[in-house]
Amino acid sequence: MWDGGEPSLISKFTLLPTNLGPFLDRLRTVAEESHLSWRLVGQALGVGLIRLEGRDPSVLLSAVLDLRKGLESGGGSVIILGCPVEIKLKTDVWGSPGDALDLMKSIKAQFDPAGTLNTGRFMGGI
Predict the structure, then answer these.
(1) Structure confidence at residue 3 (pLDDT)
(2) How far apart (Å, rounded) are the C-alpha atoms in residues 94 and 102?
(3) Residue 115 confidence (pLDDT)
(4) What span, in angstroms and rounded, lies between the C-alpha atoms of 77 and 14?
(5) Architecture of the domain defined by 8-95
């Protein structure tokens, strides 16, 4: 699943099991429309890994953002595990923190008041 000749984007998805069928339909549609090849390893419990392959990193980014938008609206998530550097510079690989970002920043400030531990490496720039 991990070896390939073209640039690729590997992500982890989580969703409610009842949303798995519609998500797979959307994945197939997005990949076909974007001319991307894809592979998936997943569990019926709603967790899995996706590999998208294509020549243009901007197309990979657009595809994963489309998939992420659909999953996040239903309580799921897409976290980018591996991708070209130009994709990392254009998006937060963690996805949306939802309404928990302020709480996460507060906890980070308590445990790392000087901001020395991996600043900017987690969602929302934490």
Answers:
(1) 60
(2) 16
(3) 87
(4) 5
(5) 2-Layer Sandwich (3.30)
